[in-house]
Amino acid sequence: MPAPIKAVAKGGFGPAKPGTTSIVRFSDQLTNSITDVAKIIEQHKGMIDSIQEIALELTTSIGTLHTLTVKYARTANQILDVLLPILKNLPLIPKNIMQMLVNLEVTTQKIIDNEASTSRTITDVSAGLRTGDVNKIKGHAGQLQVVTKTLTDMLPK
Question: How far, CA to CA in Å, does 105 sit from each of 9, 77, 145?
Fold first, then answer.
């Protein structure tokens, strides 16, 4: 390591004399900090990788559940599109049953209407997790919150 430096007469710099105060190098502090960060990452590598794998599996599960939900929502919606006009004209159908069927049709339509954006979000998050693209993942946090809120709003109160 080079000898510490100190200010000398006429604004110049020269080697510090033994026993005088030396300076701490910024570069040494930065190097030590970077080394510490690298050690912490290495110590927690298994946990970080496990979190990534779990997030990827959760994303895959949500994608599969979404596909299944949309499939059955389309089927239910098609049935309701045919039945509702017929049932509205039948006086035998209680009003609460009719309202339940109308609500079901509204819910299935919301699921269908949100299919494209939800699918895109799931696909992008999955791709970001697979490739380690943090920007792709960060960009969808808000969209995932919207998806969650939309689904939560559809749940019966």
Answer: 88, 6, 24
